[in-house]
Design brief:
The protein is an all-beta fold. The chain has one domain (36-148). The chain contains no helices and eleven strands. Strand 8 (109-112) and strand 9 form a beta hairpin. The radius of gyration is 16 Å and the shape is globular. It starts with 9 loop residues before the first strand and ends with a strand. 19% of the residues are buried.
Amino acid sequence: MCSVMGGASESEFDVNTGMWRGTVTSANNGGFVGIRTTPSFLFNMENCVGIELKLKGGNGKRFKAVIRDSTDFNGVCWTTSFDAPKLFGDFFGGSTSVGTVKIPFDKQIPTIFARTVPDQQFKNDNLVGLQLAYSKVCCLMHILHIAKR
């Protein structure tokens, strides 16, 4: 569980189940939650056109995916906003369906602190981190699989 930048929002990610859940609040000037990997791996994705997320939950809400091609903590982030699939639930209201979100590398926007950075080139041979963020209201998403595409 964590809170970021003094806000009161919090979320947690279960590495065993892939379940990410939390509550977003604007208390203390908050309003978002996020999860991310540490830059402890390197994927060479020169032969890939993007990544594909298989998701369960999210209920059509808008999320942001961030891909990092540098270990610089405050370096350029390659961002793409996406709407989680609207999935039908089972009898108890939980979603049993799985949806797919495709994030093409050529549609990403280079940013630093949410500001677009011009004249950048994504290094698809040096993917070192992934991040998901959600702002306002609440989130519950089950990340089933991340695949190269």
